[in-house]
Amino acid sequence: MNVMFRSKWWSFGFRSAIMLYFVILIVLPIIGIYSQSVSSGFVPFWESISDPLAWKAVLLTIKLALIATVINVLLGSMIGWVLIRYRFPGRRILNSLVDLPFALPTAVTGLMILLLLGPGSLVGDLASKLGFEIVFHQPAIVIAMVFVTFPFVIRAVQPLLEEIDKSEEEAAYTMGATKLRTFFSVIYPSMLPGVLSGAMLAFSRALAEFGAVVLVAGNIPGKTLIAAVYIFGEIESDNPQGAAAVSVLLLTLSFIILWTVNLIQSRRPGK
């Protein structure tokens, strides 16, 4: 009885500590953002989110994040497929390098892009000769977003590829299906939930990117000024209410994306 009593109290204390940690680390900051955004009233809040410069920054961020997500869906699906279905020298090293963007500080990512693609670099000089610029223009923002969100689709697709029953593929081949038709009829439907959830997580992460982008974007209003950098500028201009208002837009969009991801994952076969 004493052991059971202690076990119940330990379990209650453990759950309470986890919930307290969750509330302090996540819930309270979110409430603080929403509260700050309307701290001066709904009229200033509406003026902040309807500011043309703010909307240009948000819409530009969404556009470039979508481009980066499409690139990651294509590359991530192919890389995930290769890492699961093929064995080759250096495969384990390549598989471990997939997670490098998670470990690398985003400011270092921005500096790498600046050094590799900026003025004075081999690629940057070649691009200038061809008549276009990379760094301090939108292509650099997309490259930064692609890099920091690179692992999401790959890591979402790999477990699904491992779970695919190869007997279904063999049955399709036996019935005369080509490799291309087998892929789109048998394999890709099993990959699709991972592709979609990974894509939405990558998109949500790209929306919030700051460290890698601020060094390479140029931050020109209406052209290369994205939402995260705009928020930083509002804080620097002593306008926390305006920064919070734009943050609420991104935060709400991220909530919708995460809810959709959970919905997709809950409808996966076997869930």
Please supply descriptive tags for the structure shown above.
single chain, 0% strand, 271 residues, 14 helices, 79% helix, mainly alpha
Distance between the termini: 37 Å
Globally, the shape reads: globular
Helix-strand category: mainly alpha
- Low-pLDDT runs of 5+ residues are none
Mean pLDDT: 83
Tally of individual helices: 14
Give the beta-strand count.
0
Question: Multimeric state of these chains?
Answer: single chain
Largest sheet: number of strands, sense, barrel closure: none
Order of H and E elements: HHHHHHHHHHHHHH
- The share of residues in helices is over 70%
State which percent range the strand residues make up.
Answer: under 5%
Radius of gyration in whole Å, from Cα?
Answer: 23 Å
Summarize the entry for a quick read.
The chain has 271 residues and is mainly α.
Describe the structure.
The chain has 271 residues and is mostly helical. Helix content is 79%, strand content 0%. It has helices at 2-37, 42-49, 52-85, 91-97, 100-103, 106-117, 122-130, 138-148, 150-163, 166-174, 179-207, 211-214, 227-236, 240-266. The protein is globular.
